Amino acid sequence: MNQEQRFGFLSGMGAYFIWGFLPLYLTLLRHVSAVDVLSHRVVWSIPTALILITIGSRWNELFRMLQSRNALWLILSSAVIGTNWLIYIWAVGQGRIMEASLGYFINPLVNVAIASIFLSERLRRLQWVAIGFAVIAVLIETFALGRLPWVALVLAGSFSVYGLIRRKLVVDSRVGFSIEVLVLLPIALIWMLIAAQNGRSFYGDGLGDVLLLMLAGPVTAVPLLLFALAAKRLRFSTIGIMQYLGPSLQFLVALGLGETLTPLRGLTFVLIWIGVMIFSFDAFRNDRAQRRQARIDAAQLEPVSG
Asked: 268-286: string of b/e by CB count within 10 Å (b at 16+)?
């Protein structure tokens, strides 16, 4: 592993550790309305995003994107990611972290299913097997809970749609993130104004809550930046395996916070982990095959001397 790859690996680990332990931060704000927390997350993401734009000298790209038709796609992506954030914050506040972690476990499998439908990508046999395990796991989770695990499904579906939109756009992650929070800003400010007019506090109970709510901006933006740094330096298969660190840590946090793991729910996660291992093995094998073929093609194009 060279220096660039090592930096990418550490950046990726940092991103997924922050995402993995995010429920601990949100638990400290459990007494604050989920919509209030989301509003602060948007508001305090603005200065964070603008600092990142300044550091990366991306102002020209930001203005060009705001004037292009692609800005309409970012308006749509902002609505999708805003919904994702709100459901996740609400789920943590309701003590449903385990169900939320299930959503991020099945998210990569939903990604490939969506790619097969909207991008006409043919699924490999092992990908179908992995998706099959995920479907069975969701059915067992439905039986275990006595209801559809809609939190997991909405989180997985919304993040997959968000990824699909951003995949179609060629835009720097900092620029895209800045525009998304700028789009959400008026809604957040209107909500805060309504709360103030109704005499309701939207900043928690005292200075401690204010500081925690202000921290929502960096907590949102920093892992996204770290992930972008990792994605540029690591192979797709490495990123694919690392992405399960976040929901795994969330699952452990849920146990640590006292959520119950019944035998049926345990079976759900066993099946998910089996599906994840099959999916990761297939991705790793496919990545190796593509790199091997690329070396063969490059060798065939080399001029013959003598």
From this structure: bbebbbbbbebbbebbbeb
13-30 pLDDT, tens digit each: 888 899 899 999 999 988
Instruction: Measure the CA–CA gap between 155 and 162, rounded to whole angstroms.
Output: 10
The answer to whether 242 touches 17, Cβ cutoff 8 Å, is no
Mean pLDDT calculated for residue range 205-223:
85
Give the pair of three-digit tokens for residue 303: 């001029």
Q: Which position has the token pair 């749609």?
A: 161
141: enclosing H helix or E strand: helix 125-145
DSSP 304: P
Q: In one letter, which amino acid is 33?
A: S
The torsion of the CA quartet 70, 75, 81, 86, rounded to 10 degrees, works out to: 170
Q: How far from 77 is each of 34, 72, 163, 223, CA to CA, in Å?
A: 20, 9, 9, 18
Other CB atoms within a 10 A radius of the CB of residue 105 amount to: 26
CB 272 within 8 A of CB 133: yes
Quick check: pTM over 0.90? Answer: no
Q: Which helix (H) or strand (E) holds 78?
A: helix 70-93
Residue labelled with tokens 């695990």: 149
Instruction: Quote the CA–CA distance of 145 and 260 in Å, as a whole number.
Output: 11
d(CA 166, CA 236): 17
- pLDDT tens-digit series, residues 285-296: 877 777 777 777
Tell whether the torsion through CA atoms of 71, 75, 80 and 84 is positive or negative: positive
Amino acid making up residue 182: L
Question: Which tokens in the block code for residue 94?
Answer: 């309701």
Q: Assign 3-class secondary structure to 252-290.
A: HHHHHCCCCCCHHHHHHHHHHHHHHHHHHHHHHHHHHHH
For 293-302, letters b (16+ CB in 10 Å) and e give eeeeeeeeee
Provide the CA 226 distance to its chain's centre, in angstroms. Answer: 12
